[in-house]
Design goal:
By secondary structure, the protein is mostly helical. The chain has 4 helices and no strands.
């Protein structure tokens, strides 16, 4: 027996909108030749991807980008505080390795 007829699990989402908004969405769906449900799902999915991309993309000014590249290519020498923190970290790691 083929498993292609097994329905996929779905979740239900309900929204209340005023009739003008629903009519607008329905007109757009009709123009695209899709159901209102398919139109809303595709539109929300597209919007979701866009929002996520905007929040996960780092956008720098030209000056910030140049400063970043300069710091990568010519990193500053570690400060005394960073050197001390590195030593403390190494001691903690070594102590944990001994106790394991």
């Amino acid at each position: 027996m083929s498993s292609t007829n097994v329905p996929k699990t779905t979740a239900r989402l309900e929204a209340r909108v005023n009739p003008e908004i629903k009519a607008l969405w329905q007109k757009a769906a009709d123009l695209q030749g899709v159901t209102l449900t398919d139109f809303v799902i595709a539109s929300v999915q597209t919007a979701a991807y866009k929002v996520i991309e905007q929040h996960q993309t780092l956008k720098l000014s030209e000056q910030d980008a140049l400063s970043f590249v300069e710091a990568i290519l010519n990193p500053p020498q570690p400060s005394d505080a960073l050197k001390e923190a590195t030593l403390r970290y190494q001691q903690i790691i070594n102590n944990n390795a001994i106790n394991d």
